[in-house]
Write a structure and sequence with these properties.
alpha+beta; Alpha-Beta Plaits; 2 domains; 4-stranded antiparallel sheet; rod-shaped
Length: about 190
């Protein structure tokens, strides 16, 4: 019986060791391994997110460099088609062109015009009516300078008449000049 008892005790011990091993495996090792696998997947996802963030960071830096290189162009666009009529700026532009070209602006009127074109929701019009006085070369130079101005403007009406006498200190002085009536439309965004 000693032999059978030894055998039974051995089987019991092997069963206990196997049971403890299975218990430890199920209770501690498998959850830890499962947690390890989850952490590996999470770390990989975080690495992918970090590489994506790094890619977006490089893209943002490239866009910033491009914006800085064309920032002046955005300023020019805002000046070409401002967000309001800016009548005072129009007056300043036309006055400086008149002084530069030697043309006298004798009368100026401004008005906001309803845009009746099909794409009227894109822009509005500020209308400037001018009466100019000067010689032909100066007036043509005035229009050339107006054309070169960054603010988008169109001359929609022009009439000229020749003047031949001017009153200076209560005396008529014979001079050759042209009087021009001009209507200019300047664009602005709504």
């Amino acid at each position: 019986m000693k032999e059978a008892t030894k055998q039974s005790v051995s089987i019991l011990m092997i069963t206990l060791v196997a049971s403890v091993a299975i218990f430890v495996l199920n209770k501690f090792t498998l959850p830890a391994f499962s947690e390890y696998q989850k952490n590996r997947v999470l770390i990989q996802e975080k690495k992918e997110v970090l590489t994506e963030i790094e890619r977006f960071k490089k893209l943002a830096e490239e866009l910033q460099k491009k914006y800085n290189s064309v920032g002046g162009d955005f300023y020019k666009i805002a000046e070409a088609v401002p967000s309001s009529p800016q009548f005072s700026n129009l007056l300043a532009i036309l006055d400086s062109i008149g002084r530069e070209t030697g043309v006298t602006i004798t009368d100026v009127t401004f008005r906001d015009v309803q845009n009746k074109k099909t794409d009227s929701d894109l822009y509005s019009l500020a209308e400037v009516s001018l009466n100019l006085r000067g010689n032909y070369e100066d007036i043509t130079h005035f229009f050339e300078e107006t054309q070169e101005e960054i603010r988008l403007m169109d001359v929609v009406s022009l009439s000229m008449k020749k003047g031949n006498a001017e009153i200076v200190r209560n005396k008529k002085v014979a001079t050759e000049f042209i009087e021009a009536s001009v209507v200019i439309q300047a664009y602005y965004q709504k």
